[in-house]
Write a structure and sequence with these properties.
22% strand, 5 strands, 4 helices, alpha+beta
Length: 138
């Protein structure tokens, strides 16, 4: 950014790397780890704003159709499956990556926002998290 006197000021990164609890987090590595789990067909990792830590690691996960069919139509079975899968996915990531990289929160979605070329639009999810945080604080 250039100020009124013509000085240039560094504003921050424009890529998807973020800081959570003082650690630099690259979402791609976590996403690659998550999709190696048989129940996951796609994943996106974004920062979730947090008053104490700055941000938490949050994952959006699309579950494979075979796993969804096992509890389709039963809300309590689905909730139990999501709870169990959350714990399993967190353990899976903890076993593969650094302890601070595992997703503290996982949200299961039917689909992720994608570009026309098939890339996940993390920006959309990040803005959604920021809007939820602002609404909760209001």
């Amino acid at each position: 950014m250039r100020d009124a006197e013509g000085y240039l000021w560094y504003q921050g990164r424009s890529d998807d790397v973020f800081k959570a609890a003082g650690y630099r987090i690259g979402p791609g590595e976590i996403e690659n780890c998550l999709v190696k789990h048989p129940a996951v067909i796609n994943a996106a990792v974004v920062p979730k704003p947090d008053a104490e830590r700055g941000a938490l690691v949050k994952a959006y996960v699309v579950i494979a159709p075979d796993f969804v069919a096992a509890c389709a139509g039963n809300a309590s079975a689905t909730a139990q499956f999501h709870t169990q899968l959350t714990v399993e996915l967190q353990a899976h990531v903890k076993g593969q990556l650094a302890p601070y990289e595992y997703p503290k929160e996982i949200e299961f979605v039917d689909a992720l926002p994608m570009t026309t070329t098939g890339k996940v639009q993390r920006r959309v999810l990040r803005l959604q998290e920021e809007a939820r945080y602002a609404a909760a604080r209001a």
